[in-house]
Amino acid sequence: MSSARDTLLARVKAALAPLPERAPLPDWERELVVMREARGAVDAWTLFSARLAGVNGTPLTSVAELIALLTKSDWRRGYCDPALWAELRPAFDAAGGFTVETTFDRARVDDYQFGITAAVGAIAETGTVVLSDAATSSRLAALAPWTHIAVLRRAQIHLDLPAAIAALPKDPNVVWCTGPSKTADVEGILIEGVHGPGIQVALLLG
Amino acid sequence: MALQQIDQFAAKLRPDTRAAVYDGSKKGHEKRTAVLFDHYPDPDHLRRLAGNIKQHVVENLDTLLPAAAAALERNGVKVHWASTAEEANAAVLAIMQARGAKKMVKAKTMVSEETHLADYLGKNGVECVETDLGEFIIQIDGDHPSHIVKPIIHKNRREIATSFEKHGLGAYNDDPQTITRRARAHLRRKYLEADVGLTGANFVTADTGRLVLVTNEGNSRFCLAATKCHIAMVGIEKLLPRETDLGLYLNLLARSGTGQQLTVYTEFISGPRSPAQPDGPEEMHVIFVDNGRTEALASECREILRCIRCGACLNVCPVYRQASGHAYRSVYPGPVGAVLSPLLAGERFPELADLPKASSLCGACNEVCPVNIPIPDLLLRLRARGKEAGAKNAAAGTPPMGAWSLLATQPFAWRTSLTAGHTLNYVPKSLIPVPPMQTWLRDRTLPAWRGGAFRKWMKDRAKK
């Protein structure tokens, strides 16, 4: 394998050898790519929820709102991260009629109508929730059910995208989700819920 | 006069295909422009900056590639190297065989189109399922993508519904929502059955060893949630020097490609899953692929390696809009393809030497390029190369210049013909019996002949 490496790198070196000088690496200010809306004094959650709504996502601020949403669509079966279930369970029990599991069985991916997992952050200017291996109890539970609910804390919200890049956790699988899964492959017509969730909820708790 | 191959293709294009390609690309371009200029005061500055950073990458691959490989290895990734398409495909198969794996789900990657990976794996007993909706439809149809970002821009819903019916994906129904739901149900079984998930990479950070993948459908995320092994095929030019540079490129890529602020799923992958995570790959491989890139790097057109595959130059190109992607007879269509495809073809350069001529050099591709590639300049350099190589198809559509060169090299003959040309002013232009001239005159008018006027002016001026 090392000879394949040497062969390829030798070709790269040979190709670059005739260059009299190499292009320098410019520095740049991250302010350059911050959108107008995210400049100055703005409330992170207000901007985040406006942006999330703009990509057809659903911002919620209480468990009661979540239960109302699930009840309205009659989504009764789902998954919840065991670490969050203690906090959410009383409201689900009080409402009644829900079956919530705290382990995700990949043999029955279509049995779960919703999946509740913890976010590790959010980006206000884009309406993005940030997931990671460390925070997400099951990658499949955050993806396969029709509705994904990411639980978010106010202090986790970054105002802009460069700030979220600077804060990328040391984690093998960081995923930014910006609204529901979508495609426009067929005649440019927008369809939501292709392989992942058709409903993307961000639930602000604390 | 013989038409160029791309014109011949365009002339035979079905009207509904032409309309679909024209509308789809025009809409893409309009969205891109609106979003970029609405969100930023000076998007052109961002394009130039992104171009300069990528040019640094291209010209420093000899140090950045080993740095990226070392960072990936520190993160627990196994790194492989492939100089050719055959080596890249063989590396994928070897990883599959070592695991005893027979099934693969695959996200969209242009480099795997270059190597014809799916066909190769199929011949070697591996089921390889495309999971991007457009690519899945291409695969069941035995077709080829015609756009870098919108692979089925050339198809309409009726064709898709017909092929779904033919392949057992339900009775004919051409509602896009129904088509999408059926693909969802079919493909999620494939994800869960597969042993290996294969992706490309939009960027690889050389300092931290993260692969960055962007999708809207979430298919690559599903590949990495359901399978036990992740293989990424990555062109050697995909590097970024610093993780912080992602802030610039992610903002430009989504806006330039689809007119979105940000793609729905942006994944930062730096190794196998965490020990506590129940889902996802236990092992991860990255295959760095050359396949002609070092030849492009050694050429006078190395700027093309800045390309981040957004498709903006396709959307804006008047030739692409009329001819469609298949007219380019290669993996990469449009202006970027007219440069990249002949360069990547290596020995087969003369076969594609006509592509750089498929342009009016209007410069729109350069103006929209998020990494500011001077595509018209590169097209001119490749035209010169085609001429030097004596490529026959590159000469199609060029009027014979023999008579002109005879006159232009003999001063007496030149002066005489300049004066004699005045007789043309007394002949109706439509009667001039030169076919290329007649084609040209169909849409234009010739000014009156003024041959010799400049020479006379020079002479008079010298006298003073």
Please outline what is shown here.
With 206 residues, chain A is α/β, with parallel strands linked by helices. Chain A is 27% helix and 22% strand.
Fold and architecture overview:
The complex is a heterodimer of chains A (206) and B (464). With 206 residues, chain A is α/β, with parallel strands linked by helices. Chain A has one domain: 3-Layer(aba) Sandwich (Rossmann fold). Chain A has 5 helices and 12 strands. In chain A, strands 1-12-7-4-2-3 form a 6-stranded parallel β-sheet. The longest helix of chain A is centred in the N-terminal third of the chain and has 15 residues, at 2-16. The radius of gyration of chain A is 21 Å and the shape is globular. The N and C termini of chain A lie far apart (52 Å). The model of chain A has no long low-confidence stretch (mean pLDDT 95). Chain B has 3 domains: 5-10 and 294-395, Fumarate Reductase Iron-sulfur Protein, Chain B, domain 2, CATH 1.10.1060.10; 42-291, NagB/RpiA/CoA transferase-like (Rossmann fold); 408-463, no CATH class. In chain B, the strands form 2 sheets. Chain B has a 6-stranded parallel β-sheet, sandwiched between helices. Chain B starts with a helix and ends with a helix. Chains A and B meet through helix 1, helix 5, strand 9 and strand 10 of A and helix 2, helix 3, helix 4, strand 1 and helix 8 of B. Strand 9 (173-177) of chain A pairs antiparallel with strand 9 of chain B.
